[in-house]
């Protein structure tokens, strides 16, 4: 069988554009079930202003099960509501042109995100008389906005899919109102890459040469990630409670960088809280292993890949009830779920509790291997895809 994948995001070959890495990992698994896989990622033409337009070029990705061809056709984007509301039809045209230009043959369509991919897949499915399945990656709040909008294009994309995949159990009951075939498949983690390593070696590797506790966060600097709460918790722990041996690293980038920097300055935390630019994915394992605890205080998540990467290294995770990661951190030995996303004191108390708690790295890792390893996720895909012909 041949698979056509449609997505709004997908990493480029050379690593300057990394959005959609979780889709890439799923495709490595799906490559075991499909003879050929093609990926079409329509990119708005911005003359290099957006990183996707600047860095994304067609390429072939090698996997252990074969190759995957990725295409990034450009289209003209006008930021007006009428244009945005018709992006599914614009996508249908640019994807059809790409299919015809490269003579792409396919048996099924794999759409990622309801809008625009799912809506476009709905149109392409009718045009080429091929079924599609939809991966709803949206975080919890984003999905609820789509659901409450009652937008007929979203509903049609959900209704007409052969089946729907949701990375967490959140919202499955809502999706089942429109499609009786909704399955939970989590994102996989490469447990060979993300594995326990010697802490001292990793700290030297990342340049952390002080005797203290390292609290790590990785994520885009956007409101959804709620990194402001980490800085406020650091203020409580360092300025008010005099925990001078705590060091916070917030790794990422984005529009809130200046705001976070000013907040650090406001609380006089320049010697204890650091903003670190994006780190190549293959180097993240050293950061996880250098840390004493990983903190993810997000307001909303669809899953939380960084959480399972940290846990795969044996590092406990402190998170919030956000629609995603609370379903991963289910047991006390894995970390802690705080109840209030806006309570810096609760986060501060959880950090102190977990950095001083005796950790069992092996048990943490065993849980991840059993539930989130590539093999575990492959088995879940196998069970769902076995039903594809009958749907």
Concise overview:
With 391 residues, this protein is α/β, with parallel strands linked by helices. It is 40% helix and 18% strand.
Protein described:
This protein has 391 residues and is α/β, with parallel strands linked by helices. It has helices at residues 21-30, 51-55, 81-84, 87-101, 114-128, 140-149, 152-160, 172-175, 199-206, 227-240, 257-266, 284-290, 305-312, 344-356, 361-372, 374-385; strands at 2-6, 36-40, 43-45, 59-63, 66-71, 74-76, 108-112, 131-135, 164-166, 182-184, 213-218, 246-251, 273-276, 293-296, 317-320, 335-338. It folds into two domains: 2-188 and 373-390, Rossmann fold, CATH 3.40.50.2000; 199-372, Glycogen Phosphorylase B (Rossmann fold, 3-Layer(aba) Sandwich). The protein has 16 helices and 16 strands. The strands form three sheets. An eight-stranded mixed beta sheet has the order 4-5-2-1-7-8-9-10, sandwiched between helices. It has a six-stranded parallel beta sheet with strand order 13-12-11-14-15-16, with helices on both faces. β9 (164-166), α8 and β10 (182-184) form a beta-alpha-beta unit.
